[in-house]
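Lecture notes, continued. The same structure-token format from the folding unit now serves as the input rather than the output. Read the line below as a description of shape only.
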């Protein structure tokens, strides 16, 4: 669900401030210029990242791709060896089956090329919306909104959506985030979630988007949860927050 006032939320200042804060420079520069990744390895790495920590994913991905870097080699790999290489990511039997099934499909149905289409990606084994969106954004530089735990949490703290699932959050964010901001949104919010807007005890007083965030404004005032006056209704330019007004009484 989209929260009241969220359609005017100042996404550009949010992206600009986070981009400057984390030293990424101009977010308008095409993402893949500096971040080109192999779409196949993005796909497999994101499947491995499901329900585990980033450090486990990084270790397992490095070990796996050192031996089996492409669809053909991974499709032909002995399953026991694949399981051993990715064991640290948890659920490794299921993940091994899924990544090898993916590799076979990409080799046999798509000529060894990862499909560049969200709906086609969603038909691959073990691929949900977050994974498919990651492939689009990080593998192809195409717009997508991968909703992971950081994006989900920060979007709620910003007060722009209320959603029970990542899928519902993605649907709502697609409606309110300008399309040209989709690509930088995930990497910036993930970095922000890891460093400042942490799951517990977010460092609001150090946050570059404090003034734009109702949760931060509430916490600065010593309140645990935002009140009406902490929520934002924005000017058409999106630059200045003002207090929200209550509904007018019927006359
Ligand atoms: S002000 Fe606090 S809650 Fe809001 S985005 Fe920043 S760290 Fe997160």
């Amino acid at each position: 669900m989209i929260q009241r006032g969220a359609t005017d939320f100042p996404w550009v200042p949010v992206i600009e401030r986070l981009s400057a804060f984390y030293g990424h420079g101009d977010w308008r520069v095409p993402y893949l210029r500096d971040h080109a990744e192999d779409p196949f390895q993005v796909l497999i790495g994101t499947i491995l990242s499901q329900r585990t920590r980033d450090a486990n994913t990084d270790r397992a991905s490095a070990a796996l791709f050192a031996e089996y870097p492409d669809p053909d080699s991974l499709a032909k790999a002995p399953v026991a060896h694949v399981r051993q290489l990715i064991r640290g990511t948890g659920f490794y039997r299921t993940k091994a089956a899924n990544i090898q099934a993916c590799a076979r499909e990409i080799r046999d149905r798509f000529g060894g090329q990862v499909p560049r289409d969200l709906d086609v990606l969603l038909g691959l084994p073990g691929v949900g919306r977050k994974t498919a969106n990651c492939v689009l954004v990080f593998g192809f530089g195409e717009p997508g909104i991968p909703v992971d735990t950081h994006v989900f949490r920060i979007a709620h703290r910003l007060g722009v959506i209320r959603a029970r699932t990542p899928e519902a959050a993605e649907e709502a964010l697609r409606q309110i985030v300008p399309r040209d901001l989709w690509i930088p949104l995930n990497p910036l919010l993930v970095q922000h979630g890891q460093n400042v807007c942490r799951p517990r005890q977010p460092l609001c007083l150090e946050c570059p988007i404090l003034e734009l965030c109702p949760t931060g404004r509430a916490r600065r005032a010593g309140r645990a949860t935002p009140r009406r006056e902490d929520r934002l209704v924005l000017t058409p330019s999106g630059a200045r927050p003002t207090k929200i007004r209550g509904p007018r009484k019927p006359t």
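Point for the exam: The two ends are 29 Å apart (CA to CA).
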